[in-house]
What does this fold into?
Amino acid sequence: MASKRPNVVFILTDDQRYGTVRALGNDEIITPNLDRLVERGTSFMNAHIPGGTASAVCMPSRAMINSGKTLFRFDDNGKDLPDDCVTMGQAFRSAGYHTHGIGKWHNGTDSYARSFSSGDDIFFGGMWDHWNVPVCNFRENGRYDNEICFVPNFSANMTPVKVLADRIHAGVHSTELFSDDAVRFIENYDGEQPFMMYLSYLAPHDPRTMPEKFRNMYDPEKITLPPNFREMPEFSYGWTKGRDEVTAGYPRRPDDVKRHIADYYAMISHLDERIGDILAALDKRGMTEDTVVVFCGDNGLAIGQHGLMGKQSVYEHSTRLPLVMAGPGIPQNKWLDQYVYLLDIYPTLCELCGIDIPAGVEGKSFARMFADDTYVTRPDIYYAFQARIRGVADGRYKLIEYRTEDLKLTQLFDLQNDPYEMNNMFDCVGYEHITARLRARMQEYRDEWEEEKHIYGRQFWEQWRRYDEAALHGVDQPKGPSMLNQTREWGKAKK
It folds into this structure.
């Protein structure tokens, strides 16, 4: 089915970090369909998010993807997108596209309603049991207000909570549910308009459970631990008891982390199989040559790196994602190293599809890279996590600054020679000018992004100034709680 403008299939996974596609350098994971997508498209090896203002990093991440706005623009960290925010779906819908939304939407019912002209099995939440996801039917009137009672952990608490849902497909895995919806939409679409299908998965987010076919695909004993695996974090920045961090005990045991990684890879291989079915449906309908396919994760995940398990940091394992694009006008089997943010995809798709980029979009289109692989939109990028961490990277060096009530700490990494961020160069002679330059750039980002209008921005920079003032008066700076003492308090320290 040819059209003057290409169709768009946007595939978004949940918690999938970079380094989880075989064709992009991981020879332990099995992803044949994503490998084929890599062969017929362009892969962005330095795709990032800026970080997160919420512990559920996916919520602000998805808000940025769907609004094209930077991190500190959202009330309530992206729980909803205000009416004056033109969403990506809304821009395509206004330009004459049929927009179809499937799966997870973590940014409120109103913004979903104005983004899509149809949809199926909509999940308004963050995470759930993959086998029993409460989903909503598409409502043409845009009112998603039906609630059902649910007891998340009936053995511990008998008080029900209410969730937005019309039904639960009992015993159907979320990856199966949403993939079947996507295949059915492609098979049955007969509109004259080009379409944009937004398919948003819950996998590979925990709880990491998968169909039996994939359960034993990976032997934990054969999994290689990353070079920066640590049994304990080197320091605490106040997040050691966060939800993701307690998915494994302290100290992290190598065999336990290998099991986590094996399950994580199995979830991704399950996704890969069903993404293959979606790509096959496009082939069968003769739509492949007329469709731009976008594949990316929403945020990364540590799973043992730096002694962490979650994504609540600004290390590469938490902010760097897979991003592959294929379709008309996009070179095949090309890898690009330039920095891009996920929030840049929105204006890039607009440019590829001949749609005016809405005035409020702050993302930078990287469409020109497809014709000029030396083109740079972002020579450096900014990072943040809540009011705890800020950072900046310029392609070679990365500066991370921690400021909490109990911690003042600076890290400087040479990403070219130390991609796993293991060797802190901050105190090394000869690097002072690099630290000074990156600190100055970090403060420029603070002002460019109007960060101090956001509560976490104000809190971080107030701490920054407080420590600067203390240093001027010769006051000793806190170095953070001892992780060993903390774990002893929990009764989980090494014997």
In short: Residues 382-489 form a domain with the Arylsulfatase, C-terminal domain fold (CATH 3.30.1120.10). The radius of gyration is 22 Å. Confidence is low (pLDDT under 50) at residues 483-495.
